[in-house]
Amino acid sequence: ATEGKEEASAAENNPSRVPQGKPGERSSILYSAGQFFFEYLVVVSLKKMSDEHYEPKITYQFPKRENLLKGQKEEEERLLQAIPLFCFPDGNNWAPVTEFTSETFSFVLTNVDGSRKIGYCRRLLPAGRGVRLPEVFCIISCLGCFGLFSKILDEVEKRRQISMAVIYPFMQGLRESPFPAPGKTVTIKSFIPESGTELIKLTRPVDAHLEHVEFQALLQRLSPHLILHIFASAVLERRLIFLAEELSVLSQCIHAVAALLYPFTWAHTYIPVVPECLLDTVCCPTPFMVGIQMRHLERVLDQPMEEALIVDLCEGKILRAVGDEEEILPIKLQNEMLMSLNRHNNNNNIHTSEQVNTLVSEAFVQFFVRTVGHYASHIKWSKNGSGTFQERAFCKAIASKTNRKFVKKFVKTNMFSLFIEEAEKSRIPQEGKR
Length: 434
Description:
The chain is of the alpha+beta class. The chain contains 13 helices and 14 strands. The protein has helices at about 70-85, 145-160, 165-175, 215-220, 225-235, 245-260, 295-300, 325-330, 330-345, 355-370, 390-395, 400-410, 415-425, and strands at about 40-50, 55-60, 105-110, 115-125, 135-140, 185-190, 195-205, 240-245, 270, 290-295, 310, 315-320, 380, 385-390. The strands form four sheets. Strands 2-1-5-4-3 form a five-stranded antiparallel beta sheet, with helices on both faces. A hairpin with a 5-residue loop joins strand 13 (about 380) and strand 14 (about 385-390). Helix 2 (about 145-160) runs antiparallel to helix 3 (about 165-175) and helix 9 runs antiparallel to helix 10 (about 355-370). The radius of gyration is 22 Å and the shape is globular.
């Protein structure tokens, strides 16, 4: 697959590649170990403007970058301008409060070269008395690992309730630790006044392609039947809009939908939480996968948009569809996947979230194995080692008529082309690709 091409160099080594807050082109990301955990930790606070509105502004940034070259400085400024919008995507209708349940969500920024950065956010109410405004702690990283960063944000939140000064040494320790390999643990020493030195263990899941994913989030909100409709639309690279009020629900469910496509990668606009000022993204004629807060539903439905699948994650239903979602996937394979998903649904109480991830992913990987798993035997290798994919022979080799009908559409997608392009380059059969 095309996952780990440019992303793998940490921006510390290549600081000129900082994204422009441009909506995304590629979704799942795989990384090698030993890189930096993160590039920045920023705090975004709400500042009162002269018209009584609140606007999100960065009030703290670690580390501060010195001696940047002119180009790097412009790139960094673009990144720092985009972050507040994504930390408070719900616009500026805020008022001070006494209580606020903290929430965790993530967003994606894409650079011109298609490489991505992820913002992991914890929105919380700082400790204190009386009314105050929530603030967002946002960690910017090239690394896709939601569970791991949620744990880091737990530590940040715990320290925030003591004082901002305690966060700095913890993040410094994290910055000096290498990112662990899949299944491995890194231990960070951290001193907290009055409770002494703590050892914080951060472990990466064994299966690297599932570390940014929580399929349970999807299964809790949508029936297996609807999940297959969504998968069918995503596989043909259509426009998908997800609605929910909570940012955490949106970002978790969209990452899960993108992960259903493994070993293929969503190659178009990908914005798990769309800031209010970018709502016209839904008018794009090109494919997209976006999350929008329920409060903007009327505005979205009023936009002049092309056909799209609109999914309500609160009610667990589809609000708008193209109409052929039932017929896209071969019926026999569709029924097998349905059985598989229903089985996991019934066992939800027994399985850990990692087990659910593995079981669900396996069902969808099997679908691709059964439909296009024979791709490698249809790459013709020349003497100089370059491969050419024989599309016609590949399609003709499929015995089942319904499977062939589906594959003829699927081979025209961007994600299939990118996958084959990679395969044509590498003569060595790669593990996990079959």
